[in-house]
Amino acid sequence: MSECFVNAQSAENSTHMTPMIDPFARHITYLRVSVTDRCDFRCVYCMAENMTFLPKKDLLTLEELDRLCAAFITKGVRKLRITGGEPLVRKNIMSLFKSLSRHLDSGALEELTVTTNGSQLEKYADELYSFGVRRINVSIDTLNDEKFHRITRWGDLARVRRGLDAALAAGMKVKINTVALKDINEFEIPGMIEWAHDQGMDMTLIETMPLGEIETDRTNQYLSLSDLRKTLEANWTLDDIPHKTGGPARYVKIAETGGRLGFITPLSHNFCESCNRVRLTCTGQLFMCLGQEDVSDLRAVLRQSAEHDNEAIYRAIDRAIARKPKGHDFIIDRDHNGPSLERYMSTTGG
Length: 350
Ligand code: SAM
Ligand code: SF4
What we know:
This protein is of the alpha/beta class. The protein has a single domain (3-348), classed as TIM Barrel, CATH 3.20.20. The protein contains twelve helices and twelve strands. The chain has helices at residues 3-16, 62-74, 93-106, 121-130, 145-152, 157-170, 189-198, 218-221, 225-233, 298-304, 311-321, 345-348; strands at residues 30-34, 79-83, 111-116, 135-139, 173-179, 202-206, 238-241, 249-254, 260-264, 277-280, 285-287, 295-297. It has a twelve-stranded mixed sheet. The chain starts with a helix and ends with a helix. Bound molecules: S-adenosylmethionine and iron/sulfur cluster. S-adenosylmethionine is lined by residues 39, 45-46, 83-84, 86, 115-117, 139, 177, 179, 206, 208-209, 211, 345-346, 350.
């Protein structure tokens, strides 16, 4: 074997075999991929009613998304979450799930999951299950039809509930994501927890994050989860449990309902030190932190790479991970009414 070949091969090994470890010794094993910025809802805390979406040409094709996901899996990603916008409204999205399922079959990927508003689940639950999706997050902020319509602007709760039933019937574990909104669903939350736990679904409460310009002042929507926790503790026993996702959720088990409840408090810094994730947008921008602007353009690298040569992509991923910041800088208070970051959650993927 020539020396030149040996060197070339060890250089190749050194890029795609090196695990993704950032400057703060955090091991990156979780990739969230937003497959579209579009959505069939317009949730008041997430989007403005009149959104301008990205031109189609800027979006990665499903094949490009598949290739980038494969590159990340080669680099050590073990858990992949498909999100959006609403991921299940992207045309032909099942073909991406089908293709990604090969990494589950090979054992390279431990888990393929989805975060969805549930509007298309009735149609897709069985297919998702057949492509290896075993857990799914469904976002529901209220169980009141009229309020649901008010929060989502365009959503239909009955349809989402049929979707939930389809997911449960298909055999998926469902987790309900609920954004805690002051005065809007605040008083309904205990009832929602009971409803979720009765059906064997975990639930996670999320604090509003200052992402993207919306019509209303976010300080009016903001409900502190530590206050909400105190309210719940007046009636229930909440036992902290060490259920760790590497994400911003802290979990408790509620003795009376027997179910798990997560609290996502992104405005606190208590989760950054264990952050194991990065986020890829539908245009191939890699965000190393949900709460920072720094981004790496993987689309440019991808589109310049020959079809079967991912070497430049691995190197770009390594350079990006080396820049992962220690934590975020969210601000939400009366002195900072604007969004602390210009982009919407639907762009980065929630
Ligand atoms: N459309 C899907 C859905 O609603 O589940 C996936 C994308 S959505 C951006 C992911 C999660 O982010 C949802 O649970 C949503 O409630 C949450 N979310 C959106 N905007 C948010 C914000 N500004 N603050 C906190 N959570 C937000
Ligand atoms: Fe759409 Fe999800 Fe944002 Fe609601 S939270 S507007 S469903 S992307």
